[in-house]
Design brief:
The complex is a heterodimer.
Chain A lengths: L1 H22 L3 H21 L3 H25 L4 H4 L3 H24 L19 H9 L4 H22 L11 H6 L2 H4 L18
Chain B lengths: L3 H27 L4 H20 L6 E3 L4 E3 L1 H27 L6 H18 L3 H19 L6 H32 L4 H8 L7 H18 L7 H8 L2 H24 L6 H24 L4 H22 L2 H27 L1 E2 L2 E2 L9 H4 L1 H15 L5 H15 L3 H27 L12 H16 L5 H15 L2
Antiparallel strand pairs in B: 1-2, 3-4
Helix pairs in contact in B: 1-2, 1-4, 2-3, 2-4, 3-4, 3-10, 3-13, 3-19, 4-5, 4-10, 5-6, 5-10, 6-8, 6-9, 8-10, 8-11, 9-10, 9-12, 10-12, 10-13, 11-12, 11-17, 12-13, 12-16, 12-17, 13-15, 13-16, 13-18, 13-19, 15-17, 15-18, 16-17
Classes of the chains: A mainly alpha, B mainly alpha.
Chain lengths: 205, 481
């Protein structure tokens, strides 16, 4: 019974926080609500006995992704008011589509038979911890999807670099050996200036 | 971890992955000036991989813990995809140099996209399918935005990315429902569980609809086609040619495998979806293309219509239907590459032109180019004895045999409508006076692709048996296990 109560607590806060993410006026608040979402989702994972996933969610999503996101929101000058334009105009249609989908999904949820011939549920190994159970199959049975995931990340990296990195010709880069090898005579010219006459710049300027 | 037999089966994919990584390192250290070499090397890798795939034995084998499958169907489609990638790289070189997008990453991304396509064609598990789909899609988003200094290209990349991410979400949701119902993501479990008959439970139906919607997005079938015209028009032209050739073929093949293998037990449920997608694509693609003034946009609507014709074969759900689809794909990819190669040749005083009015009187300024374009247009329209006719013939025959004669009739009617805009191009080329001259074509890549495609379209009727026979074998490899 307490577990059910806690489930509903986490679930309610999760949904409310998710609503706030898309409706908060201040983008920084939206990101903070997103972090609240992640924490509650992690709580749900713990209730299901998936403590490793819960930990990953907190460490990766809260610790890295959300913080990075916060930086982006604060550093980029995005006009969120402009992004929000048309929200009210599209709301009726969007709400209608969403409602239809929600009702259909509700109909599905009340009627969930198990298929004949479906694979049996994998029993949670009692002796094994979560992390150990995942570790036992991730690099063996799931070798291929794991490697492909690596390639997907590589493509993302190559893409991000090749779409944004610009080789600016005007930038002066420091070249240490050139700096060290400079001689006094290369850069300084001493001229005697006769009084009251001045000198022509001698091609210096 | 990986046995030697599995290594042999995986060797084309390993070659592509290792090749792409080596090319990337080479590009990073040697700089942008080696982009020509990179394109050439990438093309050679694709051709070697196609050869490796081609010489594999035909019998069906599961490997890597059932995540992948090897059969004649996979070999057939992989060869088509790899040849499409190789030819696209061959064409891309000259354009890239002229539009200051000559960077070695182009070849690397095309190779990685081709690798993703190979994996998704072989995927025999929802998990490996999804990962491979994402690998190719992510590379394609970057390719669409590759000409980053042109606003239209960036817009194309962003639109493709946002809508593609949405469709991936739909697909994952559908997959999760299937997984929830069957307790497994393995196609074998899905197929055996579904083949036991009975009415389809609601969650399975839901999953089926979501997965179909996502796949319809990937092949740009109506009503999930909105992205295609904008992306086709905005992306750099050789990339557009690549989009219309390789990823479309691969996605159609994945769609076919998904429906005919794990979801074959739900045939009655998905047949109506496919019939609707096919009808809508043929009709919208046919009529919307008429009003277009930009050639790349027109080709996008044309490709939507062609997806509709291909889906007619899939709707039949028989080995003959799948054979028709495979013949169609093998002809269509070269037909569209040839057409885009001609479009790449259209330059006036050094700047590329892509409006229909620029085609006026091409026969007077560039007679050979005009002839190649005419052959490709007639083939796309399905005029016998050109190759395009055979593709349509087999698809419609299979539909008629599967009691879908009315679908075949609508297809025939819509091909007649499509003839209007293909032949209008021929009219512009032959019977109008030129507004301006068209520059001479000197690039060997473009010349070769134009010659290969035009030759193939004309000579296909002399010896159609190799392709048609292989397609039938491939279709049987998938359906009659």
């Amino acid at each position: 019974m307490p577990a059910t109560l806690i489930f509903y607590l986490f679930a309610t806060v999760l949904i409310l926080a998710a609503l706030m993410v898309i409706s908060a006026r201040n983008p920084v608040h939206a990101v903070l609500f997103l972090i609240l979402c992640f924490f509650n989702a992690a709580g749900l994972f713990v209730l299901q006995g998936a403590e490793f996933l819960a930990m990953l969610l907190v460490i990766v999503y809260v610790g890295a992704v959300a913080v990075l996101f916060l930086f982006v929101v604060m550093m980029l000058d995005i006009d969120f008011k402009q992004l929000r334009q048309g929200f009210v105009r599209y709301l009726p249609l969007g709400a209608l589509v969403g409602a239809v989908l929600l009702i259909e999904i509700g109909m599905m949820a009340v009627h969930w038979p198990t298929m004949a011939g479906a694979a049996a549920q994998t029993p949670a190994p009692a002796a094994l911890g979560n992390a150990e159970a995942i570790g036992a199959v991730l690099y063996t049975k799931y070798w291929l999807p794991f490697q492909v995931a690596g390639l997907v990340l590589l493509v993302a990296m190559v893409g991000a670099i090749c779409l944004t990195l610009r080789d600016r010709g005007q930038v002066v880069r420091q070249n240490v050996s050139v700096q060290m090898n400079r001689k006094r005579s290369d850069v300084i010219e001493i001229k005697k200036v006769p009084t009251g006459q001045g000198i022509s710049d001698g091609g210096m300027a | 971890m990986i046995s030697s037999a599995e290594f042999v089966l995986l060797s084309p994919e390993i070659l592509m992955a290792a090749g792409a990584l080596l090319l990337l390192m080479y590009g990073v250290f040697a700089g942008d000036r080696v982009s020509g070499t990179a394109n050439l090397v990438g093309m050679i890798y694709c051709i070697i991989a196609a050869f490796l795939v081609w010489q594999m034995p035909d019998q069906r084998q599961y490997y890597l813990n059932g995540f992948l499958v090897h059969d004649s169907f996979a070999s057939y489609v992989k060869v088509v995809v790899l040849l499409g990638s190789a030819l696209a790289l061959f064409m891309a070189d000259a354009y890239a140099r002229r539009h200051s997008i000559a960077r070695p990453e182009l070849a690397v991304l095309i190779m990685l996209a081709a690798l993703g396509m190979m994996l998704m064609i072989s995927a025999h598990d929802l998990l490996s399918l999804y990962m491979a789909l994402e690998l190719q899609a992510l590379a394609l988003y970057v390719l669409a935005a590759f000409q980053r200094d042109r606003l239209a290209s960036s817009e194309a990349g962003l639109k493709y990315f946002v809508l593609g991410a949405l469709s991936s979400g739909l697909m994952l949701y559908g997959m999760s429902l299937l997984y929830g119902s069957f307790g497994s993501t393995d196609y074998l479990v899905l197929a055996s569980s579904l083949s036991q008959g009975g009415a389809l439970p609601m969650p399975v139906l839901f999953g089926l609809v979501f997965v179909c919607a996502a796949m319809a997005f990937k092949v740009s079938a109506v009503p999930f086609h909105m992205w295609a015209p904008d992306v086709y028009q905005g992306a750099p032209t050789p990339v557009t040619a690549y989009f219309a050739a390789a990823p479309k073929v691969a996605a159609m093949a994945v769609f076919a495998r998904l429906l005919l293998e794990p979801l074959m037990g739900a045939f009655n449920d998905w047949q109506q979806i496919i019939i609707f997608l096919s009808l809508a694509s043929m009709i919208l693609g046919g009529f919307a293309a008429i009003t277009q003034t930009n050639i790349k946009r027109l080709m996008a609507y044309s490709s939507i219509a062609h997806v509709g014709y291909g889906l007619v074969g899939l709707a039949a759900g028989t080995a003959e239907g799948l054979q028709g689809l495979l013949v169609y794909l093998a002809i269509y990819f070269l037909n569209t590459l040839g057409t885009f190669a001609v479009i790449l040749c259209l330059r006036h005083n050094g700047t590329a032109v892509e409006n229909l009015s620029d085609l006026k009187g091409l026969s007077k300024t560039r007679p050979l180019l005009a002839l190649a374009l005419t052959i490709n247009m007639f083939s796309l329209a399905g005029v016998p004895p050109l190759a395009g006719f055979f593709g349509k013939f087999y698809v419609f025959m299979a539909a008629a045999e599967a009691q879908l004669i009315w679908l075949a009739l609508v297809g025939l009617l819509m091909s007649a409508v499509a003839c209007y805009y293909y032949i209008r191009i021929v009219k512009l080329v032959y019977f109008d006076e030129p507004d301006h001259g068209t520059d001479a074509v000197s690039e060997i890549g473009l010349r070769a692709v134009i010659a290969i495609s035009a030759g193939y379209m004309v000579l296909f009727c002399v010896a159609p048996q190799p392709i048609i026979g292989t397609a039938l074998e491939a279709a049987r490899g998938l359906l009659l296990r």
